[in-house]
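[audit] Reproducing an earlier prediction to check determinism. Same input, same settings, fresh worker. If the tokens differ from the archived copy the diff job will pick it up downstream; this log only records the rerun itself.
[audit] input (418 residues):
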Amino acid sequence: MLYTLFEWLHKLGMPGSGIFQYISFRSAMAFVVALIISIFFGKPFIRLLRRKQIGESVRDLGLAGQAEKAGTPTMGGLIIIAAILIPALLFCQLNNVYVRLMLFTTVWLGALGFADDYIKVFKKNKEGLSPRKKLIGQIILGVMVGAVMYFHPDAVICEKNATANVMTPLESALQVENQANAETPRIFGEAHHSTKTTIPFFKNNEADYSSLTRWMGDKTGKWSFLLFIPIIVFIIAAVSNGANLTDGLDGLATGTTSVIAVGIAILAYVSGNVVFANYLDIMYIPNIGELVIFVSSVIGACLGFYWWNCYPAQIFMGDTGSLMLGGIVAVSCVIIRKELLIPILCGVYLAQSVSVIMQVSYFKYTKKKYGEGRRIFLMAPLHHHFQKKGVHESKIVQHFIIISLLLAVLTVVTLKIR
């Protein structure tokens, strides 16, 4: 909204209005506004939830400090949603296909998580929304995201011309300035649809999903969407549920997600900048810079919520927040064609999910074989295992955040390590 206003003022010649053309400025403003909303509106929202007696119902799992959490206000994900949407609507270009996808993802998964929390809190059903209904909601989102990425005319990439060389940022900037010169070769080719993605640690670090359908005789990749869309559905469901499992300790989900979001913002910025895309020898994605602004609002919203959610938590985000944040992370990685980096960038999410899968699978296997179920971990997800071992909750959270930071740095470094 403000972008459109200031663009109009810039055309009229108003001094200073051109500052809204800079992604860095709008990203900073989105971060600040999101942080302010989540911090300053957090306290009155907590008081409102307490008055309405909208509190967490805690099961007795024998964990230290668990009983004290009973009655803590939940559904705090509504604060995060507001803190994300308001800055995004103010500072992003709303005609951008990627921004629209992110807005839809936020609202859709926020509503899905809200339905789950509503059933738990108001219907007094501790099971909440059934896993099948959650999965259906995630599948619908995945199909829509996959279809947009495959068919929408603005969801395109530019690949580097074979004649272009890798140059330093300064050399790239000089060549970009001289692109109008007919004698200067273009760094990147024309924008086009593609199902290519980035593979970490390989020299030619791009792979095309369409190559996986050639055994069907599909040499042109005409039917590659039949594989591409299910892969996107799987990624969104897996990451969203991974974030949901991570939301088990005070500040764990918000802390790790804010670090992950910083990594995504860096990846989005270099992918949408001709100079850095050329220097790092990666595909250039036109108009992806707007995603940096959206993700900046996510970072601000998470850090602002962490103010109230850190140990001892005054509010929980509930599924309203955790499903939504995981979906944002997944869709963002798909949009910037870096979804294969998710196991590294979202390593904490992955560890939580794998620990649950291993625990449940091993328990069922041993029960069938020996007549008594056995466990690999003291408790799953993984953070509860450390709690059972006597590690304090706040220490577990800080350790996981540090691990997330290391993984985010490693993810960015993969752009040059091949």
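[audit] rerun output stored. Observation attached for the diff report: The longest strand covers residues 196-198.
[audit] end
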